[in-house]
Sequence to fold (389 residues):
Amino acid sequence: MKPLTTVEVLERLIGYPTVSRDSNLALIHWVRNYLEDWGVQSHLVPNETGTKANLFATIGPPLESGLAFSGHTDVVPVDDQNWSSDPFVMRAHGGKFYGRGTCDMKGFIATALALVPRLSRMTLSRPVHLMLSYDEEIGCVGAPSMIAQMSEQNVRPGAVIVGEPTGMQVANAHKGMCMSRTRVTGTAAHSSQTHRGVSAVMIAGELIARLGLLERELQSKRSSDAGLVPPYSTLAVNTIEGGTAMNILASNCEFTWELRALPGDDRAKHGAAFEAMCEAVVSELRREGRECSVTTEILADVPPLDGAGGAAEALARSVLRLSGPSIAVPFGTEAGQFQQAGWSSVVCGPGSITQAHRPDEFVVAADLERCEHFLQRAVQAHCVDQSGA
Ligand SMILES: [Zn+2]
Fold:
């Protein structure tokens, strides 16, 4: 059997339209069969409805530790984007490969998979793990079940390379991201009878104003050392919906908001502060004999990454022979989740984030080649006995 090249694997992966709202199983089954062809068994961790799955696999000795290559299989939608050609048919042109997911982040996955035939023939002293997740693009909701399953099976990588697009720079930090939905239930009444009801929209407005104060407080607590932009935790309310008519006190209003917290910033503390504000508003209304309730649901909670000084960063930096500082990335990744599980993690992959999520997304061929060398040398450095025995 002839091994596929990185570009050949990428072409196949792009052919699966794994938009987060749809199933990723066709891709996952292709990967499982591909790995099986090279004698590698994989484990699937399905979602609750069985429509999607994570996949993890180990090549080499079944030891704790080892090196992991991690990528998400889902891609963002192409709706309302003006593509020059079919986004799910890879197109090569001018040293670039075009297609949805080429950059974010099937290019990295393809590079890791194309390495498998070679890995399966090597004598590894430590294992190489592959970790493919689903639903990263909608708030990193797929990876936790894979982490749990791997931990249960004593698969605990010592260093994880998360191949999100960094142009092959080493990123050791990003902010966390907590997305919440707050629902306010008021009491409907004729809008002239404000003493008989509670407008959920008015209460929501009050709560949003308080979040605004919290945002300003966060801005005053800057951290300049991690290189994050802006250098403080941010908070924003981004959608709101409520009310049914101009002359009815709204019985419902809901808004979504996100907190992007610096590594080390206590997200739970901010959440608790907001809960306390909500309770204060509700109990004040109750004292006046008016009914209102507020509930907040966390939709996604992605921990920040602070991988500075960890084994994964040290490995990536030495393999790439970096002397300058590592960078921080302005987006959330699964790396924070892996780090939270105790697995040293770093973000480093082909492609530029400025290409991700855009029409005519591409990855440059030179980046894929750099990534191939990077992964090969990382395996040599981390998973091959250097004693020559
Ligand atoms: Zn991504």
User: Anything to note?
Assistant: The mean pLDDT is 95. The two ends are 30 Å apart (CA to CA).
